[in-house]
Amino acid sequence: MFELSENNRYFFFPEPVRMSYGIDGLSKLVYTHPALSLVSGDIFVFFSHDRKRIKLLRWDGDGFILYYKRLTRGTFDLPRYSTEKGVYELDWYTFYFIMRGITAQELRFKKRFRIACSN
């Protein structure tokens, strides 16, 4: 399905990627990280050098989907990450904020009661 939601896992590649890369080129980048599986249904997030473009790669059960977004103005904010790791898992809210142009560093979440769900 073409849905991006909080039910997915998102993996951010911090090194800028040439936006001329298609599914094959991005797949090779994912393949270099043995802990990741191309056919897991996880979403792999790649930014251009100027952070005006983003590509998302995802396996959809019988083929790959490549999402592409180019901003006409502004840039994407990169998430905070440790330079010691090669790829970083993003939670849904961080991914959503990046896509919507919301700076996560300025947000503060109020404590709320939550019932833990076991999915």
From TrEMBL:
InterPro entries: Transposase_IS66_Orf2 (IPR008878). The keyword GTP-binding does not apply. The chain crosses the membrane at residues 29-48. It comes from the Bacteria. Pfam families: TnpB_IS66. Keywords: Membrane, Transmembrane, Transmembrane helix. PANTHER family: BLR8292 PROTEIN, PTHR36455. This is IS66 family insertion sequence element accessory protein TnpB. It comes from Bacteroides difficilis. The gene is tnpB.
